[in-house]
Write a sequence for this structure.
């Protein structure tokens, strides 16, 4: 980097792409219309690597390593494989666990269907939070408020307000709610505890949309999850 | 109430990197982290309050609720478990009428369980204010608690403070 805008050339799924040094592999892929599913990643926010949906294979010296692409910086001559069988399988598993954790979200139901989840083998937990950290990062980075944060560790990790009350310096911008993937209910309506299921309503559209040029189904996840290819 | 006391505890430490050190000192002198203390620390050290709250929540050494004068830790590790630590804990909790992590109504005892103390040969172990008591059984435990109840109250607290400082 050295303060200058240096461009690097790398290969993502066989396509030769150029990117500014310092950007992430996920951002580069998305700007070239290579759709890698993602949940916790947001433009203008620091990558956190929390949802692990954006995993890719990074081939180096004949060995491939599976890493999250949002926290992976581009390098000269990098070889990235985003849609190999191994990756698709791992991503499907991650999506399956996510939807088991929080089925009451359209964004997450969408991700699960688009990652090829057919049935959920885990018990549904119906939690209100998947710890994607969008709210926490938006609060701290965009609004510089730091009224939200992760508290606790392990299974007790949760998003909390300082001392569990809304501080005076909270700007009441509602960004935490706007950006939350849990705020959009699934198409058939909210699910009660004990009655959760994999929605899968848009599965039939999946094969159709794949054949239409310039449409990308992989990232049309609720609102606010779209990528460049869909917008154009 | 005790904000001035907290200020003296903070001393000249004003850098965000001193956060844990300051919190440890507050924990040692109050036996828990009062809310005003966290607010004051956040102000003085220029650390966001959520950060202070997060750190205070993360470490088991910090408690956000007032703790009793005596801290009793029962080891629930594998070796201790095999030798009946569960029964021991149940006995103790029944005797004090509390749940793990809680403090008795008179503010004298706090009981905590821990997953392993690393002294498995001595199990079942009960730690009372930093002192390890090996090969515990119900009667030994009862004696220990009885002795503490009879003794004057100041001593245990002083010990506890010493342990936390070191």
């Amino acid at each position: 980097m050295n303060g200058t805008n240096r461009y690097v050339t790398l290969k993502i799924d066989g396509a030769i792409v150029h990117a500014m040094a310092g950007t992430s592999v996920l951002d580069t892929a998305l700007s070239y219309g290579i759709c890698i599913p993602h949940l916790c990643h947001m433009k203008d926010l620091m990558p956190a690597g929390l949802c692990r949906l954006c995993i890719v294979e990074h081939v180096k010296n004949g060995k491939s390593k599976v890493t999250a692409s949002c926290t992976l910086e581009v390098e000269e001559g990098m070889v990235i494989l985003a849609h190999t069988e191994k990756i698709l399988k791992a991503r499907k598993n991650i999506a399956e666990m996510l939807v088991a954790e929080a089925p009451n979200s359209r964004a997450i139901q969408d991700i699960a269907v688009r990652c090829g989840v057919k049935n959920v083998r885990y018990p549904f937990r119906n939690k209100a939070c998947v710890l994607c950290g969008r709210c926490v990062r938006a609060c701290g980075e965009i609004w510089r408020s730091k009224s939200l944060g992760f508290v606790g560790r392990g299974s007790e990790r949760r998003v909390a307000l300082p001392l569990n009350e809304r501080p005076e310096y909270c700007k009441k911008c509602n960004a935490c709610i706007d950006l939350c993937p849990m705020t959009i209910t699934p198409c058939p309506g909210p699910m009660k505890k004990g009655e959760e299921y994999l929605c899968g309503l848009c599965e039939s559209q999946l094969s159709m949309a794949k054949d239409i040029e310039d449409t990308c189904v992989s990232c049309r996840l609720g609102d606010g999850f779209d990528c460049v290819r869909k917008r154009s | 109430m005790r904000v001035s006391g907290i200020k003296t505890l903070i001393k000249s430490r004003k850098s965000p990197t001193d956060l844990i050190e300051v919190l440890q000192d507050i924990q040692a002198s109050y036996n828990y982290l009062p809310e005003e203390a966290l607010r004051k620390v956040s102000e003085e050290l220029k650390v966001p309050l959520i950060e202070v709250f997060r750190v205070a929540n993360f470490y088991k050494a910090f408690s956000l609720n007032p703790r009793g004068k005596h801290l009793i830790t029962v080891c629930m590790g594998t070796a201790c478990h095999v030798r009946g630590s569960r029964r021991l804990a149940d006995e103790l909790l029944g005797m004090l009428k509390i749940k793990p992590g809680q403090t008795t109504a008179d503010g004298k005892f706090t009981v905590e369980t821990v997953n392993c103390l690393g002294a498995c040969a001595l199990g079942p172990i009960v730690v009372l204010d930093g002192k390890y008591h090996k090969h515990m059984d119900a009667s030994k435990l009862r004696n220990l608690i009885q002795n503490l109840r009879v003794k004057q109250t100041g001593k245990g607290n002083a010990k506890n403070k010493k342990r936390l400082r070191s």
User: Anything to note?
Assistant: Confidence is low (pLDDT under 50) at residues 220-232 of chain A.
